[in-house]
Amino acid sequence: MYSKKTMYFHYAGGVLIPVLCTVLNLVLEPITGRAPFLMIYLFGVFLVASRWGHGASIVASIFSALLFDFCFTTPVFSLWIANIEDLLGLIIMITVGTITSNLLNQAKNANSAKARAEDEALRNSLLSAISHDLRTPLTRIIGVATTLIESHNHISQEDVQEFSHVIFDESQRMSELMNKVLDMAKLSTGQIVIHREWNTLEEIIGSALKRLEKELSTHPINTHLSEKSPLIWVDSVLFEQVIVNLIENATKYTPPCSPIDIEADFFTHYLNIIISDYG
Questions:
Q1: Is 113 left (phi over 0), alpha (psi -120 to 50) or beta?
Q2: CA distance linking residue 61 with residue 98, whole number of Å
Q3: Global confidence as pTM
Q4: Contact 104/61 with Cβ under 8 angstroms?
Q5: DSSP string across 162-209
Q6: Of 18, 81, 156, 172, whose CB has the highest number of CB atoms within 10 Å?
Q7: Is pLDDT above 70 for 137?
């Protein structure tokens, strides 16, 4: 839903574009005559509809018709129409402009509905995957805690320490999963602010690997980066999190001791990163 200020801006555009089309027609009239006038006005209506929506395009259609009538039909500088051809031209302009804006509006609504459905499906699948991942550490924590409670008189100090480490590790895992859920919620509501800076890819990947030292203890890492890697304009925190998520996913679904390959190729306008596993 647009704010009032945004709506006023859209309607102002619906008025300004026909004015610009009129100025263009006045410039072209000595050269081309009035033949292209209707097409220029219709193009303006199409531009307004594609940029500022249905309401502004209706305003543009009506205002284009009024300007065409006032500036180019006989009698000039009057809203009276004496020529039947001019009247038919105005009717065609308004009709085609309205139909065009309606079609564009319907296309936008269809695309928006499709995008919302895809976002909802992606969100549901992500939540389903995360909820599944949450059950595993929670089940282990409950199991270990139950053992400590029921067998506290018959358990050695070494076992207590080992169980405590299990609870700590699984709690950390749950904390990371919950942070991912919160980040996903922020992304869906547009609350995450991207802070781009010039960074080196080597530093970002190195930091990601350091965060995953424990998970990668049984997986050799093979990195293949360009010798002369240029700086990249990214949010290093978010970009690193993407790398961490991909590598962490590879460690979960590959057998122990299987390698993980990280390749990066720089092109003129983009960077291609491939993270491969052998699961």
A1: alpha
A2: 7
A3: 0.46
A4: no
A5: HHHHHHHHHHHHHHHHHHHHHHHHHHHHT-PPP--EEE-HHHHHHHHH
A6: 18
A7: yes
